[in-house]
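Why Stage III sporulation AC/AD family protein? Reviewers of the renewal asked for a concrete example.
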Amino acid sequence: MDFSVILKLVAVGIVTALCGMLLKKAGKEEIATVLSIAGLVVAFVILLDMLAQLYDTFKALFEL
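Here is what the prediction returned.
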């Protein structure tokens, strides 16, 4: 696992959390919820890319 991927996930989490807190303070709870879901989707896409690379590595390793 590459360290930059972990940093990307941390950055997405921090930005999502900060923006969500700001939106909740401004009274925009609905938009904060949508933002949280969008941040979760972005994190899942990053993880899905990592899982695809892992699958390709196993496939090449075992010559499937």
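The chain has one domain: 3-62. This is the kind of structural detail the renewal will allow us to pursue systematically.
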